[in-house]
Amino acid sequence: MADARCAQCGGNVAVRLTGPPLSCSYCGSDKPLAPDVAARVETLRVDLERHKGRSQQLLGKQVFAGVVSSSWVLTLLVILWGGVITGAATCEPLPKGHTTFATLSGPRLRATDPTSRALVTKWWLLYLPLTGFTFNLALWSVMRLRGRRVIRAALPRAPRAAGAPLRCRCCAADLPEGGAIRRCAFCDADHVVLGSRYQKEQTSLARELDALQSQVGRTLADRDRTATRVAAIGTWSPLIALLAMPAALFVPRTYPVLWALPASFVALTILMLVLTAAGPSLPRIRSLGALGVGDQIIVDTRRFVAVAAVEVWPTLTFPVVQRLVVLRDARDDTAAPSHAVIVDFDAERDIHSARLFEISAAGTALSARDTQGENALRRYAVERAPDEGWADYQALWIVPTIAANAFNGLRCWAEAPQVGATPAHTLTLAGVVAEEKLTLIGA
Ligand SMILES: [Zn+2]
Ligand SMILES: [Zn+2]
Hints:
With 443 residues, the protein is an alpha+beta fold. It folds into 3 domains: 4-51 and 154-217, no CATH class; 62-150 and 224-278, no CATH class; 288-441, no CATH class.
């Protein structure tokens, strides 16, 4: 790693853009950088300040990387196209004595008599979806590689020495310890920690500053935008092959040379798959909406463990399931659950937020009115029996307080309550936390 030289004593000074003011550890100078380096660092610092926040964070973007690398997209692709191709192969039988393989692989055909007319139609009916499918496959593999690139861009910088903390890819300050996803305490950039893989090391100071500049200037949001664009093309353009299928009835001849097109798509797919297989395996990155029992979540600066989850329906007239996740302090295994969250997702703006509730004991007793009406007491199963915290809770009896079709408070009983019974827990809305202040750390 490249260090700057102290302007006074020539000792090594580790450059970073944030954190406590730089000073020389040898001579104690508080202005150790040469004027030109100091000016460059200051420009970068201002840039970082301007860019910092959500654009360098994985939340939201991680959904894309997760979806693209999962195999269900590929399975869906094979099923859908498989259906179309089978349909095209069986819709109209070939004339007697001809096989599909011989028709497709044979020499050029001309539609001069009814028999060869049928063969030409069949050729095109199969050629079009086969090309669409291979094109789709190639785009999917490009998309997958792009998605991984977004994640790779989030690798941290190497530590200064063996055993020293990893460093922020944007500001070069030391990162906090622990977890596969780490957020810089100084500039808020997210990092994916994959064992000993880091951003490329630079040996000259000028290149090191260039590397920081490219990290600051090209945010994860920018990188993700490219990936999303490829995904959009991947979804819609192969459909052209389907829309063109009726034209198969009118084409007068076949062109076997056109097989080069699907063949090159297959070659591209294989190349991309080899490239992705050669890369590092990625940690399981999930969206905040997938917060489950056993996961850890950082809310603001506090780290919690999810100990129980309950699916709750707010009202009969607005039946949207909201998932209430009960949290306890992550640093203290014996602590009782102190908070709960409901993660909301705004699909239009592609951002999450969390309603944070504080859990307190007791609260207003169950009244006769709470047992009737739309927002009345109801029993909800606890999704998974946790090992700790609310271990005895198989179900919860809940009376929600609802405003604008969302909970802003809940009273919970562990056993079916009688009128007059005080709740075991009362959840009070403590506030709404924006996505940039939330980090999900999978179990
Ligand atoms: Zn010095
Ligand atoms: Zn940083």
